[in-house]
Design brief:
By secondary structure, the protein is of the alpha+beta class. It is built from 3 helices and 10 strands.
Length: 172
């Protein structure tokens, strides 16, 4: 059994409604997967291909997906949420900065206020729950990351915020 097979088996066994325990288990399993032996065929292939986006598994019963993404230095994905979905990211190679934001509504419109910043390196995994807002920036020459989503995001209404031009204020 490969590390990918084991990951899928462990997540299926733990699956249920969204709880701290479920998110924690998926995060733990993704960290283990990110440390898989580089000689496993699925991982060796990813490292050779470095796809912009590739689906590694899709669970027909529960709907969760695991994707791989290769990124280049400086690639920036502006703040966004994942709608009702929750996600876990783990880095296989390289470094990705992920910042979190709070959405603040006031008389001037909607602003994003940065809450935190974390640099994900190999061996780290980060979870984002429904409604959490985050951005990503590739800090290394290249990076390869895994993204676990509890549902297919193609069918999910997500909110994307424009790149900042005035301190994250929008809607004026």
């Amino acid at each position: 059994m490969t590390a990918l097979d084991l990951f899928t088996t462990q997540v299926r066994a733990a699956w249920g409604p969204l709880t701290s325990d479920l998110v924690g288990e998926c995060r733990r399993q993704l960290k283990v997967l990110a440390g898989a032996p580089r000689g496993e065929a699925w991982l060796a292939g990813l490292l050779a291909r470095r796809p912009a986006g590739e689906e590694l598994c899709r669970d027909g019963d529960h709907g969760f997906l695991l994707l791989a993404h290769a990124e280049q230095a400086g690639l920036y994905r502006p703040p966004h949420d994942h709608g009702r979905a929750w996600v876990v990211y783990a880095v296989l190679e390289g470094e990705i900065e992920m910042r979190t934001f709070a959405r603040v509504e006031d008389g001037g419109g909607v602003r994003l206020v940065q809450r935190d910043s974390a640099v994900l390196r190999p061996g780290r995994a980060q979870a984002y729950l429904p409604g959490d807002i985050h951005d990503t920036r590739c800090l290394s020459e290249t990076a390869l990351l895994l993204r676990f989503t509890e549902r297919d995001l193609k069918a999910e209404a997500v909110t994307r915020y424009p790149a900042p031009t005035d301190g994250w204020t929008t809607g004026r």
